[in-house]
Amino acid sequence: MPAYVIVEIEIVDPTGYEEYKKQAGATVQKYGGKYIVRGGTTEVLEGDWKPKRIVILQFESMKRAKEWLNCEEYREPRKMRHRTAKTNMIVVEGV
Asked: For the chain, N or C: smaller number of CB within 10 Å?
């Protein structure tokens, strides 16, 4: 069953975050993931949620998504993301 990693991001260091994006993409691809949404315009349709940036990744399974998040190749880019942005992240199974 596919799984989706959904990340809400507030970038605090735009230059550093650009470098993070360059490094993260290869790790996503290596673990069979693909970007479904990577930024873009958001519009609130209901509620009071005000996300700055949304990223959605698709993986073949929840297990594979977690393997990517915790893999050695993503360790340094993940630290870089933590330095350059405030994030909330979930993984959800799809249909």
From this structure: C
Q: Which domains does the chain have, with CATH numbers?
A: 3-93 (3.30.70.100)
User: Which H helix or E strand runs over 20?
Assistant: helix 14-30
Q: Which tens digit of pLDDT belongs to each residue from 33-84?
A: 999 999 999 999 999 999 999 999 999 999 999 999 999 999 999 999 999 9
Q: 28 by DSSP, 3-state: which?
A: helix
Tell me how long the chain is: 95
The pTM for the full model equals: 0.92
d(CA 9, CA 51): 7
Q: Judge whether 59 and 65 are in contact, CB under 8 Å.
A: yes
